[in-house]
Specification:
By secondary structure, this protein is mainly α. The chain contains 6 helices and 4 strands. A 4-stranded mixed β-sheet has the order 2-1-4-3. Strand 3 and strand 4 form a beta hairpin.
């Protein structure tokens, strides 16, 4: 079997042209899908970020609610102590005991006021943060509906194209077998550089079929006689003459 590197230049160019033809059909399928895969990925990232924000703000709300419960517990304990100290006032034996109990009652009353104040402040923060949760959750619900729609659209397109895509990928892999590695690397490098994924282009109207820069007459002649593989000096694409290749 003839090695890929030993093939005539015409055969090498023809193999590259055939590979480009197959890969261009794959590119058409990607274009048919459009930006949907990236849009779905972007929405998934955005939804993940929104969910983290919801969880974080909700955790803050929960912390304030725990704080409120603690202050309510403090109020309950303070009221119990005040009631206890007031009963003890009926049985005091001297002024020192009276003053001590009176001071304890005052301290517990201060604790009541402080806890009431802290509850009011915490409630304000709960309301504020709950509004934030509701706003973020509303946006999260909106994005969830949007991604479900996008996924359904993508699913329909994939269902229509996956069989053709699978066949083309197998054809592309098979077409690569007969091309030397050096040329494949150059082909893939140029193909991945451009949006239209064109690495092998025809000389059309004396210009490169990729970047449309003029090709000098002598270079066009070299392309036609196929003594060597020639690339565009402007864009790096492999240049062919389809008529000379018999692919007009």
């Amino acid at each position: 079997m003839t090695k890929a590197a030993e093939l005539p230049i015409k055969d090498k160019l023809l193999a590259l042209y055939n590979l480009q033809t197959i890969d261009s059909q794959l590119t058409e399928i990607e274009i048919l899908r459009g930006e949907l895969p990236m849009e779905v990925q972007d929405l998934e990232d955005e939804i993940s970020g929104l969910q983290k924000r919801v969880d974080k703000v909700q955790a803050t709300v929960d912390a304030y609610n725990d704080e409120i419960l603690q202050h309510q517990k403090n109020i309950q304990e303070a009221n119990q102590l005040i009631e206890k100290y007031k009963k003890q006032l009926d049985n005091v034996k001297n002024n020192r005991e009276f003053e001590a109990l009176t001071k304890e009652i005052e301290l517990q009353e201060l604790e009541l006021k402080l806890s009431d104040k802290r509850i009011g402040q915490a409630n304000e923060k709960v309301v504020l943060h709950q509004e934030m949760v509701n706003t973020i959750q509303s946006k999260l619900d909106e994005k969830t509906k949007e991604i479900e729609k996008k996924k359904e659209e993508l699913k329909v397109i994939i269902a229509k194209t996956e069989k053709d895509e699978e066949k083309l990928r197998k054809k592309s892999e098979k077409a690569r077998v007969g091309i030397e590695e050096r040329l494949l690397k150059a082909y893939d490098r140029v193909r991945n550089r451009y949006r239209n994924k064109m690495s092998v282009v025809n000389v059309d109207r004396d210009a490169c079929g990729g970047c449309y820069n003029k090709i000098p007459p002598q270079v066009q002649l070299d392309i036609m006689i196929m003594k060597k593989i020639i690339t565009c000096e402007h864009c790096g694409r492999i240049l062919i003459d389809k008529e000379a290749l018999g692919q007009e």
